[in-house]
Amino acid sequence: MPQQSPLDVPEGDPFGPHNLPYGVFSTAADDRRRVGVRIGGFVLDAGAAAAALGSPFAGLLGQASLNPLLGAGHTAWRDVRRALTAWVTDPGHRPAVEPHLVPLDEVTLHLPYEVADYVDFYASEHHATNVGKMFRPDGDALTPNWKHLPIGYHGRSGTIVVSGTDVVRPSGQRKAPTDPAPVFGPSVKLDIEAEVGFVVGTPSQLGRPVALGDFEEHVFGLFLLNDWSARDIQAWEYVPLGPFLGKSFATSVSAWVTPLEALDAARVAPPARDFPLQPYLDDSDFDRPGGFDLRITVSINGQEVAQPPFATMYWTAAQQLAHMTVNGASLRTGDVFGSGTVSGPEVGQRGSLLELTWNGRDAIELTDGKRTFLEDGDTVTLTAWAPGPDGTRVGLGEVTGRIVGSR
Amino acid sequence: MPQQSPLDVPEGDPFGPHNLPYGVFSTAADDRRRVGVRIGGFVLDAGAAAAALGSPFAGLLGQASLNPLLGAGHTAWRDVRRALTAWVTDPGHRPAVEPHLVPLDEVTLHLPYEVADYVDFYASEHHATNVGKMFRPDGDALTPNWKHLPIGYHGRSGTIVVSGTDVVRPSGQRKAPTDPAPVFGPSVKLDIEAEVGFVVGTPSQLGRPVALGDFEEHVFGLFLLNDWSARDIQAWEYVPLGPFLGKSFATSVSAWVTPLEALDAARVAPPARDFPLQPYLDDSDFDRPGGFDLRITVSINGQEVAQPPFATMYWTAAQQLAHMTVNGASLRTGDVFGSGTVSGPEVGQRGSLLELTWNGRDAIELTDGKRTFLEDGDTVTLTAWAPGPDGTRVGLGEVTGRIVGSR
Question: In whole angstroms, what separates CA B244 from the centre of its chain?
Answer without folding.
Answer: 20
